[in-house]
Design goal:
Layout lengths: L1 H23 L10 H4 L10 H15 L16
Length: about 80
């Protein structure tokens, strides 16, 4: 009796998880008129060129190494 109750509970939980995950697969496609919104410079990883250059300058100054974002090691002598 107890095993059948546990088995029914497991099946119920698995069916709920399956139904929940199947709802996530219903994606919508981007329409042509929506692509202009996604193509804005603010939507890129490097949206503002001046801000990116400033952040890289600060990072390389903190590392105290030439080209701090691409060179291994830092100003402390670590490799």
């Amino acid at each position: 009796m107890k095993k059948s109750l546990i088995r029914k509970s497991v099946y119920t939980i698995l069916s709920i998880i399956t139904l929940t995950l199947s709802g996530c697969s219903l994606g919508t496609t981007v329409q042509p008129w929506e692509k202009q919104t996604l193509a804005r410079p603010e939507m890129t990883f490097e949206g503002d060129k001046l801000d990116t250059a400033y952040t890289e300058h600060i990072y390389s100054s903190k590392e105290a190494a030439s080209g701090g974002s691409g060179v291994g090691g830092g100003g402390c002598g670590c490799n």
